[in-house]
Amino acid sequence: KFVQNYLEDVVLPGVYKLAEWTEFKWVLVMFMGAFIIFVTSLSSIPLMRILKASIEKESQRRALTIARTLAKVNQVPLMEGQEANVSVDLANREPGVSKSYIFSNVDNMIIAPASMSGRYPNEKFVHTARKEGQEAVEQIDSSTIGALVPIEFYNPQTGSQSISAYAVVV
Q: Who is most buried in 22, 36, 67, 80, counting CB within 10 A?
């Protein structure tokens, strides 16, 4: 009842006044233009969400690819016990990478880069992903993605593949 009264007492008299001031065809053009703008603006909301989701997914794939490459490059030096030759320069040169490091699975201390050596990783996603023992990628916040890849090789003591370290890219 309230809506009907509002339409009859407020909205329709305004529309009638528009018809008195201008030709009816221009009133129709204005309403069609308003309708087109309204529908276009409403349809852009889901499109923005879809676009954001696809950008996040592609960024996660890229972060995981950089972390995999970092793990592959440093697998041999870690296998040979040459922790001084472990490097994260490859990942740090990539655009968008704010931090990358490699940490030991034995004592959880960061091996590379040298500036962070001896510290512990402080990213929450690292600790949850490490428990799973497999590749992980996570949206940390709206503009930050973290990726973790295990570095594993054959361990003659256990006779199986074992994870010796993890490569992390943020």
A: 67
111 phi, psi to nearest 5 deg = -95, -45
- The pLDDT mean for the chain works out to 84
Question: Which distant-in-sequence residues (6+ apart) come within 8 Å of 66 by Cβ?
Answer: 91, 94, 97, 100, 147, 169
By CB atoms closer than 10 A (0-12, 13-18, 19+), residue 170 is buried
Per the structure block, which two tokens stand in for 32? 């069609």
Would you call 36 exposed, middle or buried from its count of C-beta atoms within 10 A (0-12, 13-18, 19+)?
exposed
Distance of alpha carbon 67 from alpha carbon 59, whole angstroms: 12
Residues 6+ apart with CB under 8 A from 76: none
Strand partners, 149: 167
C-alpha span between 107 and 110 (Å, rounded): 9
> Which own/partner pairs from 118-127 qualify as long-range (CB within 8 Å, at least 24 positions apart)?
121/168, 123/168, 123/170, 126/166, 126/168
Task: Count CB neighbours of 73 within 10 A.
Answer: 18
Find the range with the poorest average confidence among 55-59, 94-98, 158-162. 158-162
Q: What is the pTM of this model?
A: 0.72
What is the helix (H) or strand (E) element at residue 61, kind and residue range? helix 24-79
